[in-house]
Amino acid sequence: MNETLLLAILTIITAATPLVFAAIGELVVEKSGVLNLGVEGMMLVGAVSSFTAVHVTGSATLGVFAGMLAGVMLASIFAFLTLNLQSSQVATGLALTIFGIGVSALIGQPLIGVAYEGLPKIQVPLLSEIPVIGRLFFGHDILVYCSIVLVIAVSWFLSRTRAGLILRAVGDSHDAAHALGYPVIRVRYMATLFGGACAGLAGAYLSMAYAPMWVENMSAGRGWIALALVVFASWQPSRVLFGAYLFGGISILQLHAQASGTINIPSQLMSMLPYLATIIVLVLISRDHGRIRRNAPASIGKAFHPTT
Fold first, then answer.
1. Can you tell me the distance from the alpha carbon of 44 to that of 29, in angstroms, rounded to the nearest whole number?
2. Which of 71, 200, 305, 306 is deepest in the core (most CB within 10 A)?
3. Model's pTM, two decimal places?
4. Percentage of residues in the chain with pLDDT exceeding 70?
5. Across-strand partners of 213?
């Protein structure tokens, strides 16, 4: 395999990983009937928290957990406002993103220009030395493998476990689930916090592996792409993985095209490609109303008002 092509594929894998984390977390949130548009803000706070932790302690493990904890903290604020105080999920999610952008910039101001070596790569004896295949499958950092395992685990949880079926029931009809005795608010709290942890983990990957540094607003719209990926995947975990690698590939290919200079198109237009692709995909999917009705949780975005 051509070395340039191999490098491009490896870069696509790293570019897709934060999208996988953020999208699979949001998928679980939406499966419970909650729409959290604050993914972008949670990613940024997770990114700056993880980078701060690894800079202070030198421990990558603590950095990863700090990012997840930061995402959970922001998600808990969202959950309290929307589930307990019954505020608008759309407005609260947007406010959470704005808050995350601002607070991450404030916390990260002293960290601008600070370098980090990045997460270590896992080298599997013998397997990592196999030409091409070794570099493609056995030479990544631990979070790349965790993202794939997480997709498999969520797919199994939603389709094979009683707790997963309860979560889906709450998302499809919270009134019916409540009538059957299921704790709707508790289920949605847990799903929202899980989504926050995944968004924080996505941010941690950005600042510790993808681009091991802190840059203000470094998520660059990936949180919004993750939201679109959930719809693109029709709320199916396995399709999230495919969609993340597809959109990650579009992002990297436009960078390689700019670097090669073979395409005489302004760089600003090339940088628009991932987001333009997102809009086009959403428009095409939105035309299929039957598909959305079949797959989207019926209670998504609706406030739950317990009668008893």
1. 19
2. 71
3. 0.90
4. 86
5. 115
Phi, psi of 273 (to 5 degrees): -55, -50
Neighbouring C-alpha atoms within 13 Å toward the C-beta of 206:
32
> Is a pLDDT exceeding 60 seen at residue 19?
yes
CA distances from 155 to 24, 239, 295 (A): 10, 10, 15
Q: How far is CA 260 from the centre of its chain?
A: 30
- Provide φ and ψ at 115, rounded to 5°: -100, 155
Tokens of 241: 């993985």
Contact 177, 170 (CB under 8 A): yes
Look at residues 30, 9, 15, 38 and name the one whose alpha carbon lies nearest to residue 273: 15
- pLDDT one-digit tens code per residue, 182-209: 999 999 999 999 999 999 999 999 999 9
Query: Are residues 19 and 226 in contact, defined by beta-carbon separation less than 8 angstroms?
Result: yes
Q: Which domains does the chain have, with CATH numbers?
A: 3-295 (1.10.3470)
By the 8 A CB rule, do 200 and 48 touch? Answer: no
For the chain, give the mean pLDDT.
86
Task: Tell me how far apart the alpha carbons of residues 193 and 44 are, in angstroms, rounded to a whole number.
Answer: 16
Q: Could you tell me the two tokens for 109?
A: 């101001």
